[in-house]
Amino acid sequence: MGYAVDMRTGAAGQFPNPLLPAPPRTDTAYIYMYRYADASSTPVQFTVDTQPAGELKPHEYLEIPWPYPGRMLRLCLELPGLPCQLVIPNPAGLNYLRITAHGGTNKRPIWEWVSVEQGEADLNEIDRQRQLPRP
Q1: HSE (CB half, 13 Å, CA atoms) of 69?
Q2: How far apart are the C-alpha atoms of 18 and 5, rounded to whole Å?
Q3: Residues 100 and 107: beta-carbon distance below 8 Å
Q4: Nearest-angstrom CA–CA distance, 77 and 63
């Protein structure tokens, strides 16, 4: 039997079986922000807790780890007319946020939280389209 050391605490424990699914983690929440191609090709800048965190281009997605369970996260997209959101991400599951820079008939930006099933399907579609040969 193998043993492993938790590098955060120094505690020793049984080495995890690589053939079994990983146990659910409750110490870190993950937000997957993604964006389909839309009318704008300009990257969307975003901040996490007032710190610049990156940009999201059309047909891309990003994983944002949040290692503070139960603590509020301030997520802002640098788009005109779009307020910031205060969110407590769920560490027991994945969180998916779909971004549309110019959506709907009024061309206003849209961001919406979607179900895990919808988010996984959308990310799979983005991956599939990335693998298609470009003309």
Answers
A1: 10
A2: 16
A3: no
A4: 15
CA-closest candidate to residue 61, choices 78, 80, 37, 85: 37
* Interatomic CA distance for residues 74 and 30, integer angstroms: 14
CATH number for the domain including 55?
Answer: 2.60.40
pLDDT for residue 116 is more than 90: yes
Q: What share of the chain is helix, strand, coil (3-state, %, to 5)?
A: 10, 40, 45
Tokens 């307020």 correspond to what residue? 83
Tell me the pTM: 0.73
pLDDT at 109: 72
Domain range enclosing 35 = 27-131
Q: Measured between alpha carbons, how far is 13 from 128 in angstroms, rounded to an integer?
A: 39
Structural domains of the chain, count: 1
| Closest to 34 in 3D by CA, of 90, 79, 99, 108 | 99
Whole-angstrom CA distances from 111 to 98, 102, 132 are: 6, 10, 27
Domain contains 101: yes
